[in-house]
Amino acid sequence: MDALQFDPKIHFPQVKIILDDPEHEGWKTLLSLASDGIDGPFSEEDVLEHARRDDPARIALIYFTSGTTSGAPKGCPRRVDAPSLGMEANPWNLKAQGNDRERLLLSTPNYRVICPTVTMMTWKAGGALVVPSPPPVPGTSNTTGMLDAVEQHNVTMMVLIPVFMHLMLAESSFAARDLSSLNVVYLGADLITKKDLFTLRKAFNHCRTGVAYGMTEVGCVTRWPFFDRFLDKLPYSHDVCPVGVPAAGVRLRIWDEGRKRVVHRGEMGELSFDCGIAARKYLDNVKSESFFSGESGREWFRTGDLAFVDQNGVLFIKGRMKDIIKRAGFSISPSAVEASIGSLTGVKTVLIASPSSQLGQEPFAVLERQTCKAEEAFKAHVVEMFGTECSLAGAASLADLGLKAFPINRTAKVEKFALEKRVLELRSKASA
């Protein structure tokens, strides 16, 4: 790319990418525009007045989902008022005063929604973003740039996905690093287990640690209220961590489709959000059923997450509705079983649906590597913890499936359909 160029004559400047000759009549490069502006007239009041006249319903940004649910990324138009409200809510309590302003590590690829979200939240709070080099990319094993950035630029806060946490801890230089500037480290963007949170605390034992939750469509919608608690005193659900409580201005609704009603506390159902920071529809109005109007004219977004709220108002995410395994009509949430087997073996586990002529589907466990535990031990453990309705059809390691690593997409989420195909082939050979 030779240049990003503006046409300054247009009231709302347009941007185009030039791939050939950078000289185009009427267009200026960003570099020359900045250079001209250094000595030019500038009125801060004019800029502020222009911002005050902006239309809060104007589309400011279009985020795109990972596409893991529908097979294709969906555009999420976000109005001017959405990021503005999100920054004002400040669910991560970013410091805005004094000399201890945040230096937040941008520990995520720039195509994930968390990147612009944390950028705006940090800048609103008067903090600074620190961008590591090389940037973190799922599927690679290099987190040296992230550690360098923390150490060299006194980073105070970072948000990690579990895969980056484990890669960072595997760095040979990790123990010798000076990471004392860090005050807060969050885990997010995936289902977080009790083991994950304890691993994080052990690695960063001088920091406050917590769980962050959000989606492309709604942004950051929870806050973590447990910084002053010991980890063994937190509420867990079958080794799955809570995600916190609703952030300021956020309403949630959990619906039981089978009984056609809002659930009671402690009961599971599909999670929906009503908040000013949410998208109102997908680009081109695809999958319009994800957005609906409720009582009192409230606008809801249906997340597709299986969730419940405990008696203290704490929210738990148990997985995706689409990942539920139906064994003889009984609904099994893979995440809880995965976390439980992971705690038993110390090995990352993914539960997939295996077809059954008699039961419809059966849960099958795929482990990252072989363990000293026999398959029968896994089966007995699952029955003891969850009942016979959740009985495993079997278990296998990645090596048994001819794989060296879990297949993941560009957002580091496991592609379960690829595992399902391998398991089907394995079971077909075994029964032949």
Question: How are the elements arranged and paired?
Answer:
Elements: E1 3-6, E2 15-18, E3 28-29, H1 30-38, H2 44-52, E4 59-64, E5 75-79, H3 81-89, E6 103-105, H4 114-124, E7 128-130, H5 144-153, E8 157-160, H6 162-170, E9 184-188, H7 194-203, E10 208-212, E11 214-215, E12 219-220, E13 222-223, E14 245-246, E15 251-256, E16 261-262, E17 269-274, E18 291-293, E19 299-309, E20 315-320, E21 325-327, E22 330-332, H8 334-345, E23 349-356, E24 360-367, H9 375-386, E25 394-397, H10 416-431
Parallel strand pairs: 6-7, 6-8, 8-9, 9-10, 24-25
Antiparallel strand pairs: 1-2, 1-3, 4-5, 11-12, 13-14, 15-16, 15-17, 17-19, 18-19, 19-20, 21-22, 23-24
Helix pairs in contact: 3-4, 8-9
Tell me about this structure:
- This protein has helices at about 30-40, 45-50, 80-90, 115-125, 145-155, 160-170, 195-205, 335-345, 375-385, 415-430, and strands spanning about 5, 15-20, 30, 60-65, 75-80, 105, 130, 155-160, 185-190, 210, 215, 220, 220-225, 245, 250-255, 260, 270-275, 290-295, 300-310, 315-320, 325, 330, 350-355, 360-365, 395.
- The chain folds into three domains: about 5-40, no CATH class; about 60-250 and about 305-320, 3-Layer(aba) Sandwich (Rossmann fold); about 325-430, GMP Synthetase, Chain A, domain 3.
- It is an alpha+beta fold and about 425 residues long.
- The longest helix is centred in the C-terminal third of the chain and has 16 residues, at about 415-430.
- Pfam families: AMP-binding.
- This is AMP-dependent synthetase/ligase domain-containing protein.
